[in-house]
Design a protein that fits this description.
The complex is a heterodimer of chains A (328) and B (352). Chain A has a single domain, classed as 3-Layer(aba) Sandwich (Rossmann fold), CATH 3.40.50. Chain A contains eleven helices and twelve strands. Chain A has helices spanning 50-57, 84-93, 102-105, 112-123, 128-141, 147-150, 160-172, 190-206, 218-224, 242-247, 252-259, and strands at 7-17, 23-34, 39-43, 65-74, 77-78, 95-98, 178-182, 210-215, 227-232, 235-241, 309-312, 315-317. In chain A, a hairpin with a 5-residue loop joins strand 1 (7-17) and strand 2 (23-34). With 352 residues, chain B is an alpha/beta fold. Chain B is built from ten helices and 14 strands. The longest helix of chain B is centred in the middle third of the chain and has 18 residues, at 196-213. The chains are: A alpha/beta (328), B alpha/beta (352). Bound molecules: adenosine-5'-diphosphate (2 copies), iron/sulfur cluster (SF4) (2 copies) and magnesium ion (2 copies).
Chain lengths: 328, 352
């Protein structure tokens, strides 16, 4: 039996229309799938388009941004043209999202209890008392043993790690099939990061969710993801299983990124570097977007942007160094 | 294989003795001092010329405060700071001036620490204006020299900070710190705000400059892999105290303090497999330094905490070559389980 994908994204484009007629191609033609229960990591440096990809899937793009094209299919149902009301139902019910800074998602003037029960009651037919009990159970489930007291507390009274646990409790409150976590541990200390990632893994298994994990930390990818997509300049430049990507990265950007990582379990006298900086999204070079920094740049790279193509099964690369049939 | 061919002198350039920095906690209607937040609580350390001492610890453990006290940006509550055997602790501003140019700082946030109304040339030149008596022409020449030394283009010297990327702004901060030819630099999370590929560029630059100019670094970071890469020795801080200090390779191969072990176990790395047995990870949050636990401050999160830990504060004791640890487990007086790196499961060690 072939399992239906939880999420399928086809040729998604989200642009920001800036002053002076400039266009930032934040997300430029990305396609990918996520199977049930799978953890897929989206890695890339800041500005590469990770958050905008996630927000586009959720249809949370505001002006001057606009989804220019593409198709988003959730559990076999195309949601691309859903209206605001339909999307509100999807968000929370089918897809839940966790952000880097929980304070931006929590309302500072309402208690934790208020906010969780509101979400629960929005999506589940429960009376106040049932919702309260469900909220307490959820808080306990995510490791907040002081759940009853915490229901009466305000977000600022909690530590960063506890707030992220509350976010996870809210995310799982309506049994979504897909959880999108955008740098959920970037603002946390490493010991707390480990707690939160382990909790997310446990919840994912327990509720049989798929997880789209956005991160810039390759160590996190290695330890928590099944598959990985590397983003550069609004596009996916390499995609494969985590083990393959870490053992034999093919795209020059992925190779450069891995070489520039200092690691606790590896000694190198000198780190590898990628020259230059990421070009701004309104000023990508013609041809391959990595061509301004690539050590292997060739003439055709300056005029033709390679397409993302299979070089072996489950391993896609966007680079002219590897033979492909189609060209853009 | 850290720094085998690096030139580290035997004599300390900096010697910090029993430094404390307590911030008053105000409260009540009259805003009286009702207690103290012990941000740095009795720290002693020394750094040799040409060496990099890394400082790691979770946020709030007192790393930045320690760096600021050492550079006299804030006054110590107690203790002394010796710079090349001269006690600088209570020097007045003009007395300290000749030392200031030898002791500089690079901050984490290249945005916040650079005046946005000044051009790169002005920013890099500024420390010379305040700390030396060079002529305008000499200052400008030197500024260009250092702008190029940190890998920026001299043509860009009339641009403003906002026209640069984060990595380039950090290069400007480094040029500013270096222009007075300092010997000692406190680097407070200098690469924490940078993307990986840019972080690598800046780390390589800092290593190159250290070699070229014989610099001594106190390198503060919360990222252990960064600290490991750049440091000769590493000190681990927890709630204002050093709990372990050792040569880098020792600390990462044979961490002895339960907190160091937990920190290392928490780092997701490329070689740890998803299927590996979970190592001991820490429960709970770091307690408030305004109200630290009695005895060993780590005991509320320590898997090996026992009765003595509540009553008695452990002090740093020699554990090996240049290796000091503050934990009751290690003086052999207690009959408690102990974790070792090679065997993360609990191993019962009795007094024997
Ligand atoms: N509100 C906005 N206005 C204009 N451009 C934006 C806005 N948000 C994002 N962008 C553009 O989209 C690009 C990708 O942003 P983002 O997805 O947030 O990157 P990431 O999450 O990978 O760091 C940015 O480089 C920027 O050019
Ligand atoms: N000027 C200050 N006044 C009061 N408390 C301070 C001040 N500066 C730092 N602290 C407190 O001292 C503790 C240590 O802070 P800091 O040195 O910044 O830690 P770190 O750099 O390790 O994150 C924290 O609890 C912080 O809130
Ligand atoms: S297409 Fe060309 S420039 Fe782009 S990554 Fe491949 S070799 Fe480098
Ligand atoms: S002294 Fe006690 S509580 Fe502190 S680290 Fe050692 S065993 Fe743990
Ligand atoms: Mg982002
Ligand atoms: Mg700090």
């Amino acid at each position: 039996m072939i399992q239906q994908d939880v999420l399928q994204v086809d040729n998604l484009k989200t642009y920001f229309h800036l002053e002076e007629g400039r266009t930032a191609k934040a997300v430029d033609d990305i396609s990918f799938k996520i199977s049930p229960g799978e953890t897929v990591a989206l890695v890339g440096e800041s500005g590469s388009g990770k958050s905008i990809s996630a927000l586009s899937i959720m249809q949370l793009i505001n002006k001057p941004g606009r989804i220019e094209g593409g198709k988003i299919t959730l559990n076999g149902e195309e949601i691309t043209n859903y209206n605001a009301k339909q999307m509100t139902k999807i968000r929370g019910n089918d897809i839940a999202m966790i952000f880097q800074e929980p304070m931006t998602a929590l309302n500072p003037v309402f208690t934790i209890g208020n906010q969780i029960t509101e979400i629960i009651r929005k999506h589940k037919k429960m009376n106040k008392q049932e919702a309260h009990q469900h909220a307490v159970d959820l808080l306990k489930l995510v490791g907040l043993s002081r759940a009853e007291e915490m229901m009466k507390e305000y977000p600022h009274q909690l530590s960063g790690g506890m707030r992220q646990r509350v976010m996870i409790a809210m995310a799982i409150s309506c049994d979504p099939k897909l959880l999108i976590a955008d740098e959920p541990t970037t603002a946390l200390d490493v010991t707390i990061q480990a707690q939160i990632l382990d909790l997310m893994k446990e919840m994912k298994e327990r509720f049989e969710m798929a997880l789209l994990l956005i991160t810039h930390d390759v160590g996190v990818v290695s330890q928590y993801a099944d598959r990985v997509m590397v983003m550069y300049g609004g596009q996916i430049v390499e995609e494969s299983t985590v083990d393959v990507l870490l053992e034999s990265p093919k795209h020059p950007y992925t190779q450069g990124l891995l070489a520039s990582l200092p690691m606790v379990d590896k000694d190198v006298a000198r780190l590898g570097t990628i020259k230059g900086t990421v070009p701004p999204a309104y000023d990508f070079p013609a041809g391959c977007r990595f061509s301004t920094r690539c050590p292997h740049v060739m003439e055709q790279c300056l005029s033709h942007n390679p397409s993302l193509s299979d070089i072996e099964s489950e391993h896609k690369v966007r680079c002219h160094l590897y033979p492909s049939e189609v060209e853009e | 294989m850290t720094k085998q061919n690096k030139n580290i002198a035997d004599s300390p350039i900096l010697n910090v003795r029993n430094i404390k920095k307590y911030f008053p906690i105000k409260g009540g209607v009259f805003k009286r001092t009702i207690g103290h937040l012990k941000a740095v609580d009795d720290i002693s350390l020394s750094i040799n010329k040409g060496e990099t001492l890394g400082i790691v610890g979770e946020s709030g453990s007192g790393k930045s405060t320690l760096g600021r006290v050492i550079l006299k940006l804030i006054d110590a509550t107690e203790g002394s700071i010796l710079y090349k055997d001269t006690n600088i602790t209570s020097m007045k501003r003009n007395q300290f001036r000749p030392y200031r140019r030898n002791m500089q700082m690079v901050f984490q946030d290249p945005f916040g620490s650079l005046n946005s109304k000044m051009s790169v040339a002005e920013l890099v030149e500024e420390p010379l204006l305040v700390q030396t008596s060079l002529s305008k022409k000499e200052r400008q020449e030197k500024a260009i020299e250092f702008i190029e030394k940190v890998g920026l283009r001299a043509e860009d010297r009339l641009k403003y900070p906002h026209e640069f990327s984060g990595g380039q702004r950090q290069r400007i901060s480094i040029a500013r710190a270096l222009i007075t030819n300092p010997e000692f630099i406190v680097c407070d999370e200098p690469v924490s705000a940078l993307d990986i590929s840019i972080q690598a560029q800046v780390l390589n630059l800092m290593k190159d400059l250290q070699e070229e100019l014989g610099l001594t670094y106190l390198f503060i970071a919360h990222d252990l892999s960064v600290v490991k890469h750049i440091s000769d020795r590493v000190a681990v801080m927890y709630l204002g105290k050093i709990v372990e200090i050792a040569p880098t390779s020792t600390l990462f191969k044979e961490p002895a303090h339960p907190y160091t072990q937990a920190l290392l176990a928490s780092i997701p790395t490329l070689n740890k497999k998803k299927t590996d047995e979970p190592t001991v990870k820490l429960k709970g949050d770091i307690p408030s330094p305004a109200n630290p636990p009695s005895g060993c401050a780590f005991r509320t999160r320590c898997p090996f905490a026992h009765e003595r830990c509540e009553k008695e504060t452990p002090v740093l004791a020699t554990q090996g070559v240049q290796h000091e640890v503050a934990c009751h487990l290690l003086d052999g007086q207690d009959d408690v389980p102990i974790a070792t790196k090679s065997d993360p499961t609990l191993k019962k060690i009795s007094k024997a």
